[in-house]
């Protein structure tokens, strides 16, 4: 069975939800935030403005 491309690695909140998702193929981290009927998704950046990349450990695979 194929694995999902994205894995949720962090979540907080119930009404105002913030989650961090990691793309298994590229390692890029994304921040997802939802509040009511509005939501947004953006890549996380480090302090130099580069995209944050995570190398997934086996337990996330």
Write the layout of secondary structure elements.
Blueprint: E1 6-12, E2 16-23, E3 29-35, E4 38-43
Antiparallel strand pairs: 1-2, 2-3, 3-4
Notes on the structure:
It contains no helices and 4 strands. A hairpin with a 2-residue loop joins strand 3 and strand 4 (38-43). The model has no long low-confidence stretch (mean pLDDT 89). With 61 residues, the protein is an all-beta fold. It starts with 5 loop residues before the first strand and ends in an 18-residue tail after the last strand. The protein is 0% helix and 46% strand. Strands 1-2-3-4 form a 4-stranded antiparallel sheet, with no helix packed on it. The chain has strands spanning 6-12, 16-23, 29-35, 38-43. The radius of gyration is 13 Å and the shape is globular.
How would the global form be characterised? Answer: globular
- Strand tally is 4
Q: What order do the strands of the largest sheet run in, or round the barrel if closed?
A: 1-2-3-4
Biggest sheet descriptor: 4 strands, antiparallel
Strand content: over 45%
What helical percentage do the residues reach? under 10%
Alpha-beta content class: mainly beta
Determine the N-to-C terminus distance: 13 Å
Count of DSSP-assigned helices: 0
Order of helices and strands: EEEE
Question: Taking all residues together, what is the mean pLDDT?
Answer: 89
The radius of gyration computed from the alpha-carbon positions, rounded to a whole number of angstroms, is: 13 Å
Which stretches are poorly predicted, pLDDT < 50 over at least 5 residues? none
């Amino acid at each position: 069975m194929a694995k999902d491309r994205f894995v949720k690695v962090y979540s907080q909140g119930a009404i105002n939800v913030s989650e961090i998702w990691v793309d298994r193929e590229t390692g890029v981290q994304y921040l997802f935030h939802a509040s009511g009927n509005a939501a947004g998704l953006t890549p996380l950046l480090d302090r130099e403005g580069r995209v944050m990349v995570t190398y997934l450990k086996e337990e996330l695979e």
